[in-house]
Amino acid sequence: MRILVALCVVASLELSGAAGDRRRRIEYGDLPDVLQRALAAHGIPASAFAAYIARVQAESDRRVADGEREHLIYFALQSRGFTERAPIEPALSARRFVERLPEAERTRLLDDPSFLPAAGWPQAERARIADLLRAFATPVANARLGYFRTLVAWDRPAIAIGGLYADYVRVARFLYQKEFAAEKDAARIAALYESRPHSSDTQIEAGFGVYLGLGTLHALEPTLRVTKILVVGPGLDLAPRTDLIDAVDPQSYQPLAVADALLALSLASDADLRVHSIDVNPRVVRALDDAVRRPLTIHLFTGIRETADQPFRPE
Which of 27, 105, 173, 279 has its CA 20 to 30 A from that of 7? Predict the structure, then answer.
């Protein structure tokens, strides 16, 4: 069923740019027969399809909005661009916050997604949030500050800090469950992602697996040539949950990384290759639209460090 939901959400996105004059919400008749039968098997006939899509869209909108505020929390804890206070690693912050709670509150926090502990903000985290809200009060030419500034009532700091506490608790709950409570149980970790807020994050390293996959494809079919690519969910490196690098404006790597891999592997030619991207977050789509309207420079950073235990391979 999760696959069906993903297909429907992708198909119902409102595309921007050249497709803007043709955008519309997906209809039941757009689906191939095999998908219609699969939906019917899950209790979604033609008569219920429109309501189903509306529910998926509403839930996606909520998860996108919550995800943006989570990125704000990651930015507030890690960035050096608006405060001189020491950065705070989000997962370690989550562990300290959860494990300092009384046992009854800790259990309720992990079991009840709506529960907010009475303890309130940890002191160091609250201080960073307050610094960020003060930075919002002075408009600056910083794309991330400008982006996150639109998400909170920064001109009413007391209200904003109180509102962001719920976002911090949600972040702490997820990170604690994933990093410390799930005990590396893949099934339990995967289940956490089924309903969590959407992450619009991306890193250049994500393209390496795609490069290896395309290399395998080239080895299997040496004569294959690719002219069109669709990247679903390219993301934007606003504020990852760890290893934040905000020396330059937010970037989207995946469309260029895929093109680079195709060209390097001789699977495509720069004369006719076209890369299209769609994302559930409209802000990511707008950022990509803006990027292609001017000469584009990509700054490459990595959060992966070579160690004796994990040396880099030649690739």
Answer: 173
